[in-house]
Design goal:
It is found in: Cell projection, Cilium; Cytoplasm. This protein is mainly β and 1477 residues long. It has three helices and 116 strands. 1% of the residues lie in helices and 56% in strands.
Length: 1477
C-alpha cells in the first residue's frame, strides 16, 4: 500500500475456519527502504461453535451471495415467490452440538404470515430436530429479511437424563372421555433454567406474496392456406409484468364445427371415400386424430420481467377448415383477470403429390458452395453416404385418381446419380419408393439437377440432388495393446473396444492369419472373430494370449470393416517369461547331481541309528528373471513324517541366486521310510519330486579293547603302509563293526590320544591309543653318488657301478632295492645286486650295492631311481641315467583271433605297428607266404621313429573248418633287426540250424519269462550273444557257457500292445556257437487286455468333495494323449446327486508318470463303485482303475451365528443347491422354539435355492441349536446355530401425574410373542394372571394414587416362564391438591362432602370455613385410605340481601409425608339465599 503524508489507511484481515480452534499469528508491516521501521501486529483469532445451529436451510444461490456480502451472523430463509391465499412450507434442522447439555428453545408464537412447528420444545445433547416454517397470506405482502428471534436456554431436570423423554409442543395425548375423544397437548416435563444461560438466535425470513400479472401479444391467429402434411409456424409472446413468477400450461381445444373441404373451393367432395385421407395418414405414420394446432413449449415458468416466446404450429393431415382455441392455464390470478384464450383458424389444401422426406436447408442455409445457378424453388434431396450406398425416398399420391410420373435428369454431363425407378404410376392414397443409386469416386460434395414430372396435370417439380461420400467412422479405442509380462502357460486377457460412430450398423471380420506372431510360433485368440457393431455403439473384443515359450512376441491383428477401403490394424505386444529353476543334489563325494522335473529321484538315507541324524543337501538355483517362491513339502504317513524335517519349508530366491535346503532324518524310534516323498514346488514353475527311503536301527555295542600302544614307529610318509589295529565293535552278535585304527606319526615325539564314541547322542565310550614317532635315515654314504650316469651304449656293451648305503636311523631297517624308471626296462638290461631283502642295523649299519647296465636291444634314454621299499613306502636313494641306440618295432596285437566265421563270409581285424626306436626303417610283409584266406594292407612302407602304422587283416574262409591257425606271418625290417611275426587263428562254420516254437501268454504291459534249455556243444568256455527279432522280447545281452554246460536262457515277453483275436506277436531268438552250430527258436506271444492298475477304497462324508490322485504311466517313448472315461458300476442307474468329475483328456510325456485328479461328491450315503479308464484313441491301448467310495452320513455343513436382543427378530439364510433336473422339496427341522423356518422349501431343478429363517428369542442367554433340512432325493443338510440373546432394551417409561388425593390410571401395552397362550404375573399390583394369545397386544392398567408430594419411581414387572419378562419404568409426579367445588348449599340445609385420607396411617385433620354463614362438622381422625363425609350447613345471613354467599372450606393435616409443609385441601362453597316472596 501507499501512504501519503498525514494519511490514514485501513486493510482487512480475514479469518475462516471449519472447526473450533485458537490461532495466534503475527503481521509484519515493513517500510520500504527503511529497515529500522518494522511494526509487529499480534493477531489472535478463535473459532467457536455455537451450542445450537440451524442447518439444512434451502435457499437460492443468489441469496447465499447476498448473505455473504451482508453483515452479521444471521441465517436466512427465503420462501421466494408465493401465491396469495396459499400455504407454503419450508423446513430446517436444529442441532444441539453439546455433549451433556439440554437446551430449551422457543420460537415466536404464530402471528401474521409466519408460524413455526414445533414452537417450543427441548433439544437433548447431540440430538437434532426438524422445524417446519409455514408462510400464508391472504393479502399482497413482501417480507425482506424479517427477523424472527428464537430464545434458547439451558435446562436441568431432577431425574437422570436417560429417564427424561424428548418433548415439544407437537406431542399429543388422546383420551377417551365418553362419548367423545379428547386430544390434549402433553405437558412440558418439569425442569429448571440454568441461570445466565439464555441467548437468542435471529432467523431472517424473506417472501414475496403477489398475484400473477402478464400481457399477451396476440388475441387471434389466422394461418394461411397450408398443403396437407406441411407445417406453418406463428410466433406468440407472453410478458411477465408482475413481481412473482408466472406458471403456464397450454391446452388446444378443437372446434367441432371444423368441416372438410376440397382444393377447388369450400364445397365438399362427393365421390371420395371418407377414409382416404385416414389411409394416407396411416402410410405417413401420422395419427390423424392429433390436433392440427400445437404450442411449444406447452408448459413452464416465466420469471418476473421476462418474455417467453411460443411457436404455434399448424400441421394438417386431412382436408378441412380448422378452428380451435389455445387455452393457457395460469394460477394465482387476481379476481377479474383472465388467462389467455386465443382463437386460431386454418385451412388445408390437397396437393397432387407429397414427397415424404424432411426439407433441407442446403440452399436456404447458405451451405451451397457451387456457383452455378439454381432454382430457389428446387426441392433438395441430400444424401450422406458411408462408403457406397443406394438411398431411397417415397412419393405419395393423396388424390383420388391414378396418375403417371417420370424423373428427368437435367445435367449436361453424366450424373453420379442413377434413378432406379425413372417412371411409374401411383394409385390413389398409395405411395411408391423412388431409389437413387449414388456412385461416387471422390469424397467431395456432388450436385445433380432433376425434374419430377406429372404430365396429366402439367406438374413439374425441380429437384437438386446433393451427395457426399466418406469413409465410415469406425476405429479401435486403443490402436496398441500391451499385455505386459506374461508367464509361460498362463493365459492373459484384455479388452479393446471397436467403436462405431455411424448411424448404421457395420459388420466386421478378423483375418485368422493375422493372429500369428511375426515368428509364426505364437497365436492370439480374439473373440468374437466376426460380428456387427450397432449404430453409435461400441463392441468389446476380448484378446487373449497363452504363451508357450519365453520370448518377446508381437502381433498385428487385421480387421476388415464393411464399406471401408482399408482394414483396421491393432498392434499387440507381450513379453513372455518362464519361472525356470534347477535342483541339484550334493553327493557324498562332493559332486553335484542334476535333477529333472520330469523324473522322480531317490533320496536313500540307508540305515540310521536311533537319535542319530542323516542329511541330504539340495541346491535350488533361480534361472528366471523374477524372484522365485519355493515350497518344500513332505508327503506320506504322519507317523513317518515326524522323523523328517526340511529346512526351510518356504523360501524366496532372488534372481541369479541359489538356495541351500537341507533334509534331515532323525529317527526317534525304529521305523522304515515307505511311501514318503519330497516335493520341491516352484510357484508358477516346475515341481521336483523325490522318493525318500531309509530306516532306523537301535544300537547295542561291545568294544574289543579299550587301550592300545603302537610302540615306536617310523614317521608317516606318503605311500608308506602305516601300522594299524582293528577295533571291533559288536552289536550283541547281530552285526560287528570294525574300526581300523592307523598310526600316522608326523613328528618324532610320543603320542597319546583318546577316541570318543557317542551312542544315541547320550552315551560316550572312550578308547586310549598310544605310540612314538621315529625318523627314518637311509642314504648314500658318498653324497656324490646320488646321481649315477651310465652313458650311451650300443648293443653288446656293458658298464658296472658300485654304491655304499648307510642306515643312520635309531631302528633296525629291513628293505628291498627296486629300480623305478620312466620307461620300461628289461631286468636283464639293467640290474641291481644284491637282490632280495636287506637288513641294516641301527646307527650306522651299511651295505654295498652294484649297478650293472648291459643292453641286448634298443633302450631309449632313461632315468631310473634306485629306491628302498619299506612297508609300502619307496624311499629314494639315487638316480641312474643311460641309453642304448637302435631300431625297435612292435605289433599290437601280435596274435589275431577271428573266431567262428560263416562259410563264404569274411571278417576284418585291425593291428598297429609302432616304432619305439631311435632310427627309422622300411618294412615289407611277405604276402607270398600268406594263405589264400588271409590278406593284409598295406603290404610295405616306411616307419619313422615314434610313428604308428595301422594294418587291416581280412579272413575270408571258403571251406568249413573248426580251427584254422596261421603262424609265422613275418614282416622284414631294413637294417637287419629281427623280423616281426604275426599269428592268426579262426574257424569256418555252416549256417544250418534247428528250430523250436515257444508260446507266451500275459496281459498287456506285464511280463512273462520262460527259460530255454540250451546245451553248449563245444568243449570250450564261450560267450554267446542272443540275436532276438521282435520288440516284445528281451534277453540277457551275453550268456556265458562252460564246456558242455546245459544252461537255461531266460526270454522275457513284455508286450506294449494287445493282440487281436486270431493274431499273435511273432519273433525269434538265434544262438550261435563257435563251432558253427546255431539254435533258432520261434517266439509266439499273446497279449491279453490289461488288469486294473489298482483297487482303491475311499471313505468320505456326504456332501463333501473328495479328490483322489490316480497315477497314469506312459509306457511309450513318445508322448501319449489319453481319453478319460468315467463309468459308474454301482449303482447301475444314473444318479444326478453323485458327481464324478475330472479332465476329459490328459497328456503324459514319454516314459513318465502323471497324476490325474479325480473329484467325487455325493449328496446321500451309500457305496459307489466306479471305473476310470485312460485310453489312447489312436492305438486303442488303455489302462484303468477301480475306485470304490463309501459315503457316510454328512457332517456339519456350516455354523451360523445369530445375535439379537430379546423380542427382536434377526434373519439369516441358507443356500441349497439342487443338482437334479426336477424340483425337490426340503423339510426343515429345528428343536429350538425361537427359530422360525418354513416347514417346507422347494428348490427348482438345476438351480440354487435360498432358505430364510428367523431367530426371535424371548429369554436372555446363549444357546446352540441345529437346523436340519431333509430331502428324500438329497438327504440331510445339517447346520449348527450359535444363538445369543442380549438383554432387551428398556421399555418406554410410563408417566403419571396426579394431585394428592386423586388417582391417574394409564394402560400399559405390550405384545405377547409366545406361540402359546401365556399367563403373565404382575408385581406392582396384585392382579390375577391373565392369558394372552400369540402376537396379541395386551394391556395392563396401572393406577397411580400418591400419598405424598413429589416424584415417585417404580417398576412394573410382567413375567412369564414362556413369554419372558417385561419391565416398564414407572414415573409418577404428585402435585399439590387442587381446589374442588363449588358445592351448592341451600339456606337452612347441609350437604356431605366426601373426603379421603390418602395417607398410609391414621391421620387427624382440622376443618375451617372462612365465612360464618357456613358451619362444618367432621371427624378429627380418619383411618388410612378411608373416606369420611364432611357435613357442611348453610344459614343465610340476616339483612335480606340478594345473591349467593361464597365461602371456602379448608381441611388441614399436620402430616407432611416428607414434603416439609402443611398439606391443605380447599373446597369452594356456594350458599343460595332463600327466594323472596
Amino acid at each position: 500500500m501507499w501512504l501519503d503524508v498525514n494519511k490514514l489507511e485501513a486493510f482487512e484481515v480475514s479469518f475462516c475456519s471449519d472447526r473450533p480452534l485458537t490461532v495466534k499469528a503475527k503481521i509484519s508491516v515493513q517500510v520500504k527502504d527503511n529497515q529500522y521501521s518494522n511494526t509487529i501486529i499480534l493477531v489472535t483469532a478463535e473459532a467457536y461453535q455455537e451450542i445450537v445451529s440451524l442447518d439444512y436451510i434451502s435457499r437460492p444461490i443468489q441469496d447465499v451471495d447476498q448473505e455473504e456480502e451482508g453483515e452479521g451472523n444471521c441465517e436466512v430463509l427465503n420462501f421466494g415467490d408465493c401465491h396469495v391465499d396459499c400455504q407454503h412450507q419450508e423446513s430446517f434442522t436444529l442441532i444441539n452440538h453439546s455433549s451433556d447439555q439440554v437446551v430449551r428453545f422457543e420460537w415466536p408464537p404464530g402471528g401474521s404470515h409466519v408460524s413455526f412447528s414445533p414452537q417450543v420444545g427441548h433439544l437433548h445433547a447431540g440430538c437434532s430436530k426438524e422445524v417446519s416454517v409455514i408462510f400464508w397470506s391472504s393479502q399482497l405482502v413482501t417480507l425482506k429479511s424479517k427477523s424472527k428471534k428464537c430464545k434458547f436456554c439451558r435446562v436441568e431436570f431432577q431425574q437422570p437424563l436417560e429417564q427424561v423423554a424428548d418433548w415439544d409442543d407437537r406431542q399429543r395425548t388422546v383420551q377417551w372421555q365418553s362419548p367423545s375423544k379428547v386430544v390434549q397437548t402433553d405437558p412440558e416435563p418439569s425442569c429448571s433454567v440454568v441461570d445466565g444461560s439464555q441467548w437468542e438466535l435471529d432467523l431472517l425470513i424473506s417472501a414475496v406474496c403477489d398475484y400473477a400479472k402478464f400481457s399477451c401479444s396476440n388475441n387471434t391467429i389466422h394461418f394461411k392456406d397450408t398443403m396437407l402434411f406441411q407445417t406453418r409456424v406463428h410466433q406468440l409472446q407472453i410478458v411477465n409484468e408482475g413481481s412473482v413468477k408466472v406458471d403456464y400450461a397450454w391446452q388446444v381445444l378443437m372446434d367441432s364445427s371444423s368441416s372438410s373441404g376440397s382444393r377447388d373451393g369450400d364445397s365438399l367432395p362427393a365421390a371420395r371415400p371418407s377414409s382416404a385421407l385416414l389411409r394416407v395418414a396411416t402410410l405417413l405414420t401420422v395419427n390423424p386424430e392429433l390436433p392440427a394446432f400445437t404450442v411449444e413449449p406447452s408448459a413452464g415458468t416465466i420469471i418476473p420481467g421476462a418474455t417467453q416466446d411460443f411457436s404455434v404450429r399448424f400441421s394438417p393431415v386431412e382436408l378441412a377448415q380448422f378452428q380451435g382455441k389455445l387455452i393457457c392455464s395460469i394460477p394465482n390470478l387476481q379476481d377479474g383477470d383472465l388467462a389467455p384464450c386465443i382463437p386460431v383458424f386454418g385451412r388445408s389444401l390437397l396437393p397432387h403429390c407429397h414427397f415424404d422426406f424432411e426439407d433441407s436447408d442446403y440452399i436456404s442455409g447458405h451451405r451451397r458452395r457451387v456457383r452455378s445457378p439454381v432454382d430457389l424453388n428446387s426441392r433438395v434431396l441430400e444424401f450422406e453416404a458411408v462408403g457406397f450406398t443406394t438411398p431411397s425416398k417415397s412419393v405419395l399420391n393423396p388424390t383420388s385418381r391414378t396418375y403417371s410420373f417420370k424423373w428427368r435428369c437435367e445435367d449436361d454431363s453424366a450424373s453420379p446419380f442413377r434413378c432406379l425407378s425413372p417412371c411409374g404410376s401411383i394409385l390413389p392414397g398409395k405411395r411408391t419408393q423412388v431409389c437413387f443409386e449414388y456412385i461416387a469416386d471422390q469424397p467431395d460434395t456432388v450436385e445433380s439437377f432433376w425434374t419430377f414430372v406429372i404430365e396429366t396435370v402439367s406438374l413439374s417439380v425441380p429437384f437438386l440432388l446433393v451427395g457426399t461420400t466418406r469413409e465410415p467412422l469406425v476405429y479401435f479405442q486403443r490402436p496398441h495393446l500391451d499385455l505386459g509380462e506374461l508367464l509361460v502357460g498362463r493365459q492373459a486377457e484384455q479388452t479393446v473396444a471397436l467403436v462405431n460412430g455411424e448411424l448404421e450398423p457395420l459388420s466386421f471380420s478378423v483375418l485368422p492369419e493375422s493372429l500369428l506372431s511375426e515368428d509364426q510360433l505364437s497365436g492370439l485368440i480374439v473373440h468374437p472373430m466376426s460380428g456387427t457393431v450397432a449404430p453409435k455403439d461400441r463392441l468389446p473384443l476380448f484378446v487373449s494370449l497363452t504363451p508357450s515359450l519365453e520370448a518377446h512376441v508381437s502381433f498385428r491383428v487385421t480387421l476388415k470393416v464393411k464399406c471401408r477401403s482399408e482394414p483396421l490394424t491393432l498392434t499387440v505386444r507381450a513379453d513372455c517369461f518362464a519361472m525356470s529353476a534347477t535342483v541339484q543334489i550334493e553327493q557324498p563325494d562332493g559332486g553335484l547331481k542334476d535333477v529333472s522335473p520330469n523324473h522322480q529321484d531317490i533320496l536313500d538315507f540307508g540305515k540310521v541309528g536311533i537319535s542319530e541324524q542323516s542329511t541330504f543337501k539340495l541346491l535350488v538355483s533361480n534361472c528366471a528373471r523374477f524372484s522365485l517362491e519355493v515350497n518344500f513339502e513332505l508327503m506320506g504317513p504322519g507317523d513317518l513324517l515326524q522323523h523328517l524335517e526340511a529346512k526351510p519349508q518356504t523360501a524366496t530366491i532372488e534372481v541369479g541366486k541359489q538356495l541351500q535346503s537341507l533334509l534331515f532324518f532323525s529317527p526317534q524310534n525304529i521305523c522304515n521310510l515307505q511311501d514318503v516323498s519330497l516335493n520341491v514346488k516352484v510357484k508358477f514353475g516346475p515341481t521336483f519330486t523325490f522318493t525318500v527311503k531309509g530306516g532306523a536301527v537301535a544300537p547295542s555295542l561291545e568294544f574289543s579293547f579299550n587301550k592300545f600302544n603302537f610302540g615306536r614307529c617310523f614317521l608317516s610318509c606318503p605311500g608308506m603302509q602305516p601300522p594299524s589295529q582293528t577295533l571291533v565293535i559288536s552289536n550283541k552278535g547281530r552285526r560287528d563293526v570294525r574300526v581300523p585304527l592307523t598310526f600316522y606319526p608326523s613328528e618324532a615325539r610320543r603320542y597319546h590320544e583318546k577316541l570318543s564314541f557317542i551312542l544315541n547322542s547320550c552315551v560316550t565310550r572312550q578308547v586310549e591309543v598310544l605310540g612314538q614317532g621315529t625318523e627314518m635315515k637311509l642314504e648314500v654314504e658318498d653324497p656324490r653318488q646320488k646321481k649315477v650316469k651310465l652313458g650311451s651304449l650300443t648293443l653288446g656293451q656293458k658298464v658296472t657301478k658300485q654304491v655304499v648305503l648307510v642306515n643312520r636311523s635309531s631302528l633296525d631297517l629291513s628293505f628291498t632295492l627296486t629300480l623305478n624308471a620312466n620307461t620300461p626296462l628289461d631286468p636283464k638290461d639293467l640290474s641291481v645286486r644284491p637282490a632280495g631283502e636287506l637288513k641294516l642295523k641301527s646307527a650306522g649299519g651299511s651295505c654295498q650295492v652294484e649297478i650293472q647296465f648291459s643292453p641286448r636291444r634298443h633302450v631309449p634314454a632313461f632315468s631310473a631311481e634306485l629306491q628302498a621299499e619299506f612297508a609300502g613306502f619307496f624311499h629314494p636313494l639315487l638316480t641312474v641315467q643311460g641309453c642304448c641306440l637302435g631300431v625297435e618295432v612292435l605289433l599290437d596285437p601280435n596274435h589275431l583271433s577271428f573266431g567262428a566265421v560263416v562259410q563264404r563270409c569274411q571278417a576284418s581285424r585291425r593291428i598297429i605297428m609302432v616304432n619305439i626306436g631311435d632310427i627309422g626303417a622300411r618294412f615289407h610283409w611277405k604276402t607270398e607266404n600268406f594263405p589264400a584266406e588271409l590278406s593284409i594292407t598295406p603290404a610295405k612302407g616306411y616307419i619313422c621313429p615314434g610313428m604308428e602304422v595301422p594294418f587291416e587283416v581280412t579272413f575270408a574262409p571258403v571251406e568249413l573248418s573248426n580251427d584254422r591257425r596261421y603262424e609265422g606271418l613275418s614282416c622284414s625290417l631294413e637294417g637287419s633287426p629281427p623280423p616281426v611275426l604275426l599269428t592268426v587263428t579262426g574257424s569256418c562254420i555252416a549256417a544250418s540250424t534247428t528250430q523250436e516254437v515257444v508260446n507266451f501268454f500275459c496281459p498287456v504291459r506285464s511280463s512273462q519269462t520262460q527259460s530255454l534249455s540250451v546245451i553248449n556243444p563245444t568243449n570250450q568256455r564261450c560267450c554267446i550273444r542272443p540275436l532276438i527279432e521282435g520288440e516284445q522280447w528281451r534277453a540277457a545281452p551275453i550268456v556265458t557257457f562252460e564246456p558242455h554246460q546245459n544252461k537255461a536262457v531266460d526270454i522275457t515277453y513284455r508286450p506294449l500292445t494287445m493282440t487281436t483275436e486270431g493274431k499273435k506277436h511273432l519273433g525269434s531268438v538265434f544262438l550261435s556257437f563257435p563251432e558253427g552250430r546255431g539254435m533258432l527258436y520261434s517266439l509266439h506271444g499273446t497279449a491279453d487286455p490289461p488288469k486294473a492298475e489298482d483297487n482303491i477304497s475311499i471313505e468320505l462324508p456326504a456332501k463333501s468333495l473328495q479328490s483322489q490322485l490316480l497315477t497314469v504311466s506312459n509306457w511309450l517313448s513318445k508322448q501319449q494323449r489319453f481319453h478319460v472315461l468315467m463309468e459308474t458300476l454301482k449303482p447301475e442307474k444314473p444318479d444326478a446327486t453323485v458327481s464324478l468329475r475330472g479332465l476329459k483328456y490328459m497328456d503324459v510325456p514319454a516314459h513318465a508318470n502323471r497324476d490325474y485328479n479325480l473329484s467325487f461328491s455325493a449328496y446321500k450315503e451309500g457305496h459307489y463303485s466306479t471305473k476310470v479308464t485312460f485310453s489312447n484313441e489312436k492305438t486303442g491301448e488303455y489302462l484303468f482303475y477301480l475306485v470304490t467310495f463309501k459315503v457316510t452320513p454328512p457332517g456339519i455343513l456350516s455354523t451360523i451365528t445369530l445375535e439379537t436382543t430379546v423380542r427382536r427378530t434377526v434373519s439369516a439364510s441358507i443356500q441349497v443347491e439342487n443338482p437334479l433336473t426336477t424340483p425337490t422339496c426340503l423339510s426343515t427341522e429345528c428343536k429350538c422354539p425361537d427359530i422360525s423356518a418354513p416347514p417346507q422349501h422347494t428348490v427348482p431343478g438345476l438351480s440354487q435355492g435360498v432358505l430364510s429363517f428367523e431367530y426371535h428369542p424371548l429369554h436372555e442367554g446363549e444357546s446352540t441349536a441345529r437346523l436340519s433340512l431333509l430331502s428324500n432325493d438329497l438327504g440331510y443338510f445339517h447346520h449348527d446355530l450359535i444363538l445369543r440373546a442380549l438383554p432387551p432394551p428398556p421399555e418406554k417409561t410410563v408417566h403419571f401425574s396426579a394431585p394428592l388425593g386423586c388417582s391417574h390410571a394409564v394402560p400399559v401395552k405390550f405384545t405377547n410373542y409366545s406361540r402359546f397362550k401365556t399367563e403373565y404375573s404382575c408385581k406392582v399390583r396384585k392382579l390375577m394372571p391373565v392369558g394372552f394369545q400369540l402376537g396379541s397386544e395386551a394391556r395392563v392398567e396401572v393406577c397411580f394414587e400418591p400419598h405424598q408430594l413429589g416424584e415417585v419411581k417404580a417398576q412394573l414387572r410382567l413375567y412369564s416362564g414362556i413369554g419372558g419378562e417385561y419391565i416398564f419404568p414407572l414415573h409418577g409426579v404428585c402435585l399439590p391438591p387442587k381446589a374442588q367445588g363449588p358445592f351448592s348449599i341451600r339456606a337452612g340445609r347441609s350437604i356431605n362432602i366426601p373426603f379421603k385420607n390418602v395417607f398410609l396411617q391414621t391421620t387427624s385433620f382440622s376443618f375451617q370455613v372462612d365465612n360464618p354463614c357456613f358451619a362444618v362438622k367432621g371427624v378429627e381422625s380418619i383411618g388410612p385410605k378411608k373416606t369420611q363425609n364432611i357435613s357442611v350447613c348453610f344459614e343465610a345471613p340476616p339483612g335480606g340481601g340478594s345473591g349467593p354467599c361464597f365461602g371456602k372450606l379448608t381441611v388441614t393435616s399436620q402430616r407432611s409425608e416428607g414434603s416439609g409443609k402443611v398439606t391443605t385441601w380447599v373446597f369452594y362453597l356456594k350458599g343460595h339465599r332463600p327466594e323472596s316472596s
